[in-house]
């Protein structure tokens, strides 16, 4: 029986609390976040005696250390924002608590996505005998585990990896983001980047796009983005010659984003407004719907997967593995939309891997460094069934 502390009472936090409460492995759950009202609302909807709540500013390491010492969790699940990653890793290190997150650290004043800051904790975590699992949502997260699973079972060498992420849902809002607006807009407005033959190729934001067919959904225009799992996957699977990430956006979404960018509302540097410093993107976030509020009327589904090509026994082969998730099903089960659901469920499974002793090597690790099998066995039963398409023509064979 394990104790878990969950930091962040947003869309993803809600799913993680619901799912942890339903598992007998977790006997005590503490949800801690900046706004206590949001913790109350989640605890009320879960309605389990296992769930307690606390107010916490996770940027303050001393406050987190104090709470960790009081609650004594076995693992901390960080589903606050990427800005909190290092402060929470410091606190876990001080108290000796395992750590797991779903997004890599970003400095608030720079849209820079890389694992370097968190990888630097490896020796300290190893020496302390505790584990940190980085990027254990869906993408990053399941996409890395899908790739590790493909390598373990179907390939001697992986050469080409295309991660494809489609949200074909409709939330009825004119413009909204499916996870934290600030983090989401920072990700999409940065230059696109992909890996080819040992180098990173940077291209203007959303400048490369192509139609891609998604199961049960059909063809959707998909845009090349930089996504953080590309960095860890090409490091840990060095036979990869090319790795790219594609995400669907509607034309309306792109038009809105372009107008917001042209107006300067996506800027992350502070500007002076009548004597007060404000960051335009933070102001915009305050105007946009909370991701969790989209859940009730969301219809349609997401489809996220990996198209992989490489060789097995000297022969070329192709492999596609994916999950489709219905927004309405996620809402019926845990009052969430599918983006929060597909992020929260893998975070819970990753934590189960640690507390069950299956993924417990001390140090800082990305998910593809572990045995994918026990994780894959739990994905379907916990709500994210996956499907494989083996040796069929790949949509990426031409380029
Ligand atoms: P939300 O904005 O809905 O929730 C974030 C929560 O964190 C809010 O409750 C917020 O509190 C809280 N928080 C923010 N700052 C602090 C702080 N200093 N101390 C304590 N709590 C804080 O975001 P989501 O739930 O949509 O996303 C959560 C995380 O999941 C993000 O890091 C996101 O990048 C990641 N993600 C990962 C995905 C993946 O597949 N790997 C996909 C989608 C999201 P308050 O409301 O008071 O501001």
Give your account of this protein's structure.
- Residues 137-379 form the Saccharopine dehydrogenase-like C-terminal domain.
- Residues 4-133 form the Saccharopine dehydrogenase NADP binding domain.
- This is Saccharopine dehydrogenase family protein.
- By secondary structure, the chain is of the alpha/beta class.
- The chain folds into two domains: 2-134, 3-Layer(aba) Sandwich (Rossmann fold), CATH 3.40.50.720; 142-336 and 381-390, Dihydrodipicolinate Reductase, domain 2 (2-Layer Sandwich).
- The chain is 35% helix and 28% strand.
- It contains 14 helices and 18 strands.
- It has helices at residues 11-21, 36-46, 61-71, 85-95, 116-119, 122-128, 142-153, 181-189, 229-236, 251-263, 280-287, 327-334, 338-355, 373-379, and strands at 2-7, 26-33, 51-55, 75-78, 98-101, 131-134, 157-167, 192-196, 199-203, 209-214, 218-225, 242-248, 271-273, 276-278, 301-312, 315-326, 363-366, 387-390.
- Strands 7, 8, 9, 10, 11, 12, 15, 16 and 18 form a nine-stranded mixed beta sheet that branches. Strands 3-2-1-4-5-6-17 form a seven-stranded parallel beta sheet, with helices on both faces.
- Helix 1 packs across helix 13.
- The radius of gyration is 20 Å and the shape is globular.
- The structure holds NADPH dihydro-nicotinamide-adenine-dinucleotide phosphate (NDP).
- NADPH dihydro-nicotinamide-adenine-dinucleotide phosphate binds at residues 7-13, 33-35, 38, 56-59, 79-82, 84, 102-103, 137-141, 179-180, 183, 290-292, 339-340, 343.
């Amino acid at each position: 029986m394990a104790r878990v502390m969950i930091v962040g009472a947003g869309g993803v936090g809600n799913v993680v609390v619901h799912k942890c409460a339903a598992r007998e492995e977790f006997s005590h759950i503490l949800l801690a976040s900046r706004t206590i009202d949001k913790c109350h609302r989640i605890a009320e909807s879960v309605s389990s005696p296992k769930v307690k709540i606390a107010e916490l500013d996770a940027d303050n390491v001393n406050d987190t250390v104090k709470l960790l010492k009081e609650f004594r969790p076995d693992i901390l699940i960080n589903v606050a924002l990427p800005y909190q990653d290092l402060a929470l890793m410091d606190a876990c290190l001080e108290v000796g608590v395992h750590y797991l997150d779903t997004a890599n650290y970003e400095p608030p004043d720079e849209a820079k996505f890389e694992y370097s800051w968190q990888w630097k904790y490896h020796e300290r975590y190893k020496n302390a005998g505790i584990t940190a699992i980085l990027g254990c949502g869906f993408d990053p997260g399941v996409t890395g585990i899908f790739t590790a699973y493909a390598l373990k079972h179907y390939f001697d060498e992986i050469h080409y990896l295309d991660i494809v992420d489609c949200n074909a849902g409709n939330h009825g809002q004119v413009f909204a983001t499916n996870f934290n607006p600030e983090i989401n807009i920072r990700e999409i407005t940065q230059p696109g980047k992909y890996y080819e033959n040992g180098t990173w190729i940077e291209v203007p934001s959303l400048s490369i796009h192509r139609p891609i067919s998604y199961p049960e959904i059909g063809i959707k225009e998909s845009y090349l983005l930089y996504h953080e799992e590309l960095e860890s996957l090409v490091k840990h699977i060095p036979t990869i010659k090319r790795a790219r990430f594609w995400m669907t956006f509607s034309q309306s979404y792109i038009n809105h984003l372009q107008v917001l960018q042209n107006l300067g509302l996506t800027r992350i540097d502070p500007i002076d407004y009548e004597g007060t410093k404000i960051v335009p993107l933070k102001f915009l976030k305050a105007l946009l719907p909370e991701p969790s509020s989209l859940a009730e009327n969301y219809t349609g589904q997401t489809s996220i997967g990996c198209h992989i090509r490489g060789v097995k026994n000297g022969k070329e082969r192709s492999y596609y593995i994916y999950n489709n998730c219905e927004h309405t099903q996620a809402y019926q089960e845990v009052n969430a939309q599918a983006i929060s659901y597909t992020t929260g469920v893998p975070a819970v499974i990753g934590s189960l891997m640690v507390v069950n002793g299956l993924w417990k090597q001390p140090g800082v690790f990305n998910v593809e460094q572990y045995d994918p099998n026990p994780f894959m066995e739990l994905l379907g039963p916990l709500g994210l069934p996956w499907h494989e398409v083996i040796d069929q023509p790949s949509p990426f064979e031409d380029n």
